[in-house]
Design a protein that fits this description.
Layout: H1 2-18, H2 25-41, H3 43-61, H4 67-76, H5 83-93, H6 96-106, H7 109-146
Length: 154
């Protein structure tokens, strides 16, 4: 008897499970605002730039790999595929009001100036981070050698 009742309710339960959790316009408005924020801030373009820099670093580290291989790899990477994950992250960490506040900032004169300068800041930060990491590697190598270890590759 219980099995028959469950079988009758199963299609209804499946349909309910397929419905969006939040069907209000507020969530779709917030999602649209997040997409707009990612566009205004140039987050997708910046992600693409970071991929380019990463591939450049990898190409320098692996000089035996021909440039056309790196070009083929780059063509296969579409950073915009990451956008849904970014939307989810912003949705998780910011309220709709906060997203609107961020949009107001980034659409202001100082916000646009920040966006304009951000790629250069990221590039300089990456270069500084690489130099810093090399310094740490050298310190680590020296400490290991001082203690009698032979580091194979750092």
């Amino acid at each position: 008897m219980k099995l028959i009742v469950l079988c009758r309710r199963l299609p209804v339960l499946v349909l309910l499970a397929l419905l969006p959790v939040n069907t209000s316009g507020e969530q779709s408005d917030k999602t649209a605002a997040i997409h707009r924020l990612l566009e205004v801030t140039g987050a997708i373009a910046m992600g693409s730039q970071m991929v380019d820099q990463l591939l450049t670093i990898q190409a320098q580290a692996q000089p035996g790999v021909p440039a056309e291989v790196w070009a083929d790899i780059r063509e296969e990477i579409d950073f915009s595929e990451f956008e849904p994950a970014m939307v989810h992250i912003y949705d998780k960490h910011f309220s709709a009001a906060e997203i609107e506040g961020l949009l107001a900032f980034y659409e202001s004169d100082i916000g646009r100036r920040f966006i304009e300068k951000q790629p250069a800041i990221v590039e300089d930060s990456m270069a500084a981070g690489q130099a810093w990491a090399l310094g740490i590697q050298e310190k680590l190598r020296a400490k290991l050698e001082k203690r009698g270890f032979k580091p194979t590759r750092l």
